[in-house]
Amino acid sequence: MELPLQKYKVFVKKVEASSLFKRVVEKEKKLSNGRTFSNKKYSKKVVAVISTNNKNFVIRYTDNVLNKIYIISGNSSRTCTQAGLKNTSYLAYKIKRINSRNLLTHRVLKGVIKQQRRYLKTGNISDLAPFSQTQLVKMLPGSVDISWISRLVNNLSVLTPFGEEKRLRTFFQTTKDVNKIYLKKLFEKKSSLTFNDAQIKDLLKNEFALSVSRRTVCYYRKELGIPSYKKRLSCDRYFAFVSVFSCVYPLLIETVIKHSPEKNGVYELLTEKEAFYIGSTKNIKKRLKEHLKHSNKNVKIKKILKSNNCFFRYCLFQENWRKKEKELYDCFLKRYKRAPECNRIKPGG
Question: Model-level pTM?
Answer without folding.
Answer: 0.63
